[in-house]
Amino acid sequence: MKIKVPQDALWILRKLNQAGYEAYVVGGCVRDSLMGREPNDWDITTSAKPLEVKALFRRTIDTGLQHGTVTVMNHGVGYEVTTYRLDGDYSDHRRPESVTYSENLADDLMRRDFTINAMAYHPEKGLVDLYGGAEDMEKKEIRAVGDPDARFNEDALRILRAVRFAAQLGFTIESATREAIRNHVEDLGLISVERIETELTKLICSAHPEELEELYDLGITAKILPEFDRMMETSQNTPYHYTDVGHHTIAVMQHVSPTKVMRYAALLHDVGKPDCRFTDENGQDHFYGHPEKGVPIAVDVMKRLKLDNKTIDGASLLVLWHDFGMKGDLTETTFRKGVSRMGIENFPAYLEIRRADMEGQSDYQKEKKEADFARIREMYDRLLLEKPALTVRELAVDGKALMEAGIPAGPEMGEILKHLLDYVLEDPERNTRDTLLEEVACLRKS
Ligand code: ATP
Ligand code: MG
Question: What pLDDT does residue 390 have?
């Protein structure tokens, strides 16, 4: 088994070896290399103590000296070099009370979470796989190192990591490991939001976002994303859907690109539905107003997870607009007004979620929905060609021109500009200086 270790990581290994220390690449990079995936980063494990590591390299950063990690900078890239260590007791279900350095690679591999993450590699010594990681990789299984119950008891975040790796790699969780997860879900309440968000976001942006259902089955979303449980438990008795809100949501996630904005938008696009269900006299369900209802809920969820503002803004905008134009009665004017309010720069993302939303629905009236969608695309293409004014900035008059026409600066000016934009959105031909000033004169007379 050969792994191609990049030159810069190899240089660090060699330097540690020449100084008399053991050193291996370890963890995620070994796992990903064996699977033919591109590793995110190359982590190194060594018998050298942190101060010994620091003494050997010119540029280092004290990333986590208390748990033995020094980042070595090489050609602008950071490599985490961690001393072989044994973790002490975990009395709080999240971090060891103490760490002890060790002389043995075996000790260091034993403290790692899953067998596929507990392999080390050295170009001459080859693969060190003490827990059957390669075999589990063949079986496509996530298995805890050692006693699963004890491992989840030590650090409850591993619960979420198990499902995250299953989602990224397309693996299943081995049965004893899965059972142990069930026993420790409650402990997730002790884990910081930041650590949870990191793992949840990796799962949501993975190749298999449908693993969210595994989180639900294991009782994990009940702890960290109860809004999803409500979606799973909201059925949709309507010809437009073949499944409940939760399964539909998963299907939409599978059909958008794996970016944070798109995946969180898909996850939350129908989050308002459980609160909006209305069953008519024929027993059919309707969800009037669910996009508007969903926005504050979506924002709450994303703030609770401490997601960045760019993701929160981008995803909540799509929650609000995801149903735009699908009633089939869109005129050129209402279309321009919608695009103006949404912001034309957001339109491609809207089209993406719109298309994914359709993919996750039943075939009922499919042709009509396809035709409506095609029409929206056409209108958008025409908009790009004709470039009508969609913002106040693109109007043929500006604040200065209005002041010359006698409008004082202040709130009235803002109102007039808004009115003029509406006036132009109704008919783009009106966007000339003369027409707009005439309109202003009319306004002031009335
Ligand atoms: P990624 O590709 O997402 O970075 P990774 O496997 O490298 O995946 P990291 O979170 O970067 O995951 O951790 C690096 C290694 O450290 C893991 O492969 C694993 O061996 C070990 N590890 C990380 N977190 C834990 C944990 N909570 N418990 C035990 N071992 C862990
Ligand atoms: Mg990593």
Answer: 98
For ligand 2, the distance from its centroid to the CA atom of residue 58, given in whole angstroms, is 23
Question: Quick check: CB of 40 below 6 Å from ligand 1?
Answer: yes
CA of 273 to the centre of ligand 2 (A): 37
Which residues lie near ion ligand 2 (Cβ < 5 Å)? 28
Closest CA to 259 of 206, 304, 327, 307: 206
Atom number, ligand 1, closest to the C-alpha of residue 112: 30
Residue 214 identity: E
Nearest ligand to the CA of 32 is 1
Question: What does pTM read for this prediction?
Answer: 0.94
Quote the pLDDT of residue 446: 77
- 371-384 residue pLDDT tens: 999 999 999 999 99
Q: Say if CB 190 and CB 94 are below 8 A apart.
A: yes
Do 94 and 156 contact (CB within 8 A), yes or no? yes
| Residues with Cβ within 8 Å of residue 392, at least 6 apart in sequence | 417, 418, 420, 421
Q: Which pLDDT value is given to residue 174?
A: 98
Distance CA 411, CA 251 (A): 46
Pocket residue to mutate for ligand 1, from 40, 84, 112, 128, most atoms within 8 A of Cβ: 112
| Ligand 1 pocket residue status of 146, Cβ below 6 Å | no
Tokens of 246: 């939760």
Nearest to 353 by CA among 362, 361, 365: 361
Alpha-carbon span 265 to 295, nearest angstrom: 10
Q: Identify the H or E element spanning 364.
A: none
Q: Is 112 in the pocket of ligand 1 (CB under 6 A)?
A: yes
pLDDT lower than 70: segments of the chain: 328
Question: 141-142 and 172-173: which strand pairing?
Answer: parallel
Q: How far is the CA of 365 from the centre of ligand 2 (A)?
A: 46
Q: Let me know how many helices (H) and strands (E) the chain has, helices first.
A: 22, 13
Distant-in-sequence contacts of 149-152, Cβ < 8 A, 24+ apart: 149/180, 149/183, 149/184, 151/113, 151/180, 152/180, 152/181, 152/183, 152/184, 152/187
Question: Using N-to-C axis directions, what is the helix angle for 347-359 and 309-321, rounded to 10°?
Answer: 60
Query: 112 alpha carbon to ligand 1 midpoint, in Å?
Result: 8
